[in-house]
Prior knowledge:
Layout: H1 7-11, H2 13-17, H3 23-35, H4 37-55, H5 57-69, H6 71-74, H7 78-81, H8 86-102, E1 108-109, E2 115-116, E3 121-124, E4 128-129, H9 139-152, E5 158-159, H10 162-171, H11 182-192, E6 196-204, E7 210-217, E8 223-230, H12 237-251, H13 274-288, H14 292-305, H15 310-319, H16 325-330, H17 337-352, H18 354-367, H19 372-384, H20 388-401, H21 406-418, H22 422-435, H23 441-452, H24 456-469, H25 474-486, H26 490-501, H27 506-515, H28 518-522, H29 526-543, H30 551-566, H31 570-587, H32 596-605, H33 609-626, H34 631-643, H35 647-661, H36 664-676, H37 680-692, H38 696-700, H39 702-718, H40 722-735, H41 744-756
Amino acid sequence: MSSCGNKELAQKLYAYELGLLAEDEQREVEIHLYKCDVCFRSYLRFKESAGLLRNDPDIQDDIRQLAQELPEFRRQTAGDRRRRTLVPAIVFAAAAVLLLLLKPWRIDIGPTQEATAVESYVAIMYFDNVADKTDSLHLGEIATNLLITDLSESSYLRVLSGQRLYDLLKLLGREGQKSVSRETAGEIADSAGADVLLLGNILQVEPTLVVTTELVDARDGRVLAAQQVMGNPGENIFSIVDRLSTLVKQDLALPAAAGQEPDPLIADITSHSPAAYLAYLRGKDLLNKLYHVEAGEAFQEALSHDSTLAMAYYYLAGIIDRDLITKAVRYSAHVSTRDQYLINCNNTLYMQGMGAALAEIERGIERFPDDKEMLALAAGYCNRLQKYEAAIDYNRRVLQVDPLYKTAYNNLAYIYNTLGEYEAAIDATNAYIRLAPDEANPYDTRGEIYANNGRIDLAVASYRQALKIKPDFRESRTMLGDIYLLQGDYDEAGRLFHSIAEDKDYETRVMGRMYLAKIPTFQGKFQEALRVLEEGIARDLEENPNSTRHVDTGFKHFAMAWLYLELGEYEAAIREFHTHMEIYREAYPGLGNHDRHEYIQLLAETGRIQLAEQTLVEYADDLGRMEYPESYLEYARGCIAFAKKDYPAAVDHLAVAARAFNNFPTRFLLARAYQETGRLSDAVGEFERLLNRYSILRVAWAIRSVKMHYYLGLAYEQSRWYDKAVAQYAIFLDLWKDADHPIPELADAADRLQRLRGQGEGSALP
């Protein structure tokens, strides 16, 4: 630790890992870990021991007794302990570590969630195919992952996941290496905190398979046991792994109760096809990089070899077609216990809603408390339910299990950004980049954080870096196009949007056809935008008749609704929004159109106040059932109040919603409500911040994004900042100079601009 530049923060590391720091100190240490490689490695080394300290009942009793003997700790009140000072924490941590060193032991969380003794935490290395050094049939990779899945079925073993093995190899500069030396294996075990290594070799492929393994003590390199399985004629890798896992569990000397656990054949909970399983593994690797298009292709290839591979359907349901979850459910009897939880959770999400899905995945976490994918799912659900602190906690749990898990850093970046903690968001993103410097998504995430916080040049550079790594990365093409659009560079925006609309991937094309309507909308050419959207829907249906159920086709109807509203065609606006909701409801029947707050807004803005209020009552009942946050209702109440010209009430409701959403449509309406109540300084502040933010929703709400220049001009004029008002009116008039229908705000802005020219700058804002 002596080489760390911030010694005070470095000293807090052990107290942090033992959970002894106050929340602000905890956040400070996390940010430091993102930046400091020295402390990050120390964290890896100490993490496993800290987990033992937190779970062993005997050690906990000793620590509690020790705590009472520490005068600094004993003098603190209950309130003080919620914000512990550094010195007692360090003393306490040091004593706890001493107890740990004096008492050798291992623990894990068993199926009853009590601390139960287990023999080993096993790190399975990639099998070395000695018989075929090129491993042309990928038998080494398949054997490794099958054995990980098989042994993970036991409640009495912890097994290093295949993804974590991949990440650790990458961190050690050995990415893609399928043959691992004992020295490298020892480094992996040390980083992961594993105490037993399993090293495997495929000695023979023809005429029969011959596989050998060794169990090695990770601390001193001693061989604890060796196993060999000689295949019978016609026996494949799946049955070989079944026999091998039985031998391994016997040599690990698991408790007698482990023999009573169900032990299904590995092919029955994965696939009977090596080709299908290999394509499935490739799909998971691509999905881990968020390369959705390529991952989808790999999962479809897997299904071409094995149409009953449930987990391929599970992942495809999130990539191309939500209905595929029904097939995942149909074949879910043939997956591992862990994967059954994932499928049930996904099905629950679609059929019952987010709250029920969170409860389902939390049941899975009770059974598999160290499962990163489950913990990350729970974090994502909490984030969408606006339970931000719970989402942060789940991501922290992920990183306690695996400090190299990229998804957690990605998730934290977005959560911190939503909470307005820009520095923490960037630090989390940089940690993500440090773990995956050659993947596109980390730079895409950083670009979005920069863009949302007005660092536009940095955002552009980050998106370009993502596209340098992966030129067809859809998300970066979209966001970079949005930036060009907001900057008025319609040629560059159009080039990117057309590339998306003409992509080889159908899902990407469906999205791209919606983006093509953004440019005419920003130019005030609403009739042209409607035509582009209608043509896009027709093309969607031409390529796939099932597009009537495609969510992105539905969002084209959503965009058309707001265009018709602006054109004063209210019946058409309501009709299009109904179509959008019907598509969404079919795709996610359990979510009950949680976006009805925007439908209520549309009703209110078309003068249908009574229907808006009636819909609000029904919406409140549905959200209560789905356990959605109150902020959705606050947004809807604010829209109704604004339409009724009850602007103080609108401010009250929208201010609550804005704290939770912190997005463009909410803060735009809040700024308008401030403006109508005469709170000009607040209105100007909101509008200026929104103008500085380049976000997906600002482009999605293109009409209001352009009108924001007009309303900010009004606020400046009312505040007697005439030069600034002139500038905003001029921008507004230029953006919609080619508008294809009369817009009242345009005529008013032109009159005001003419009157204000030459008046000069007045006094500052009140």
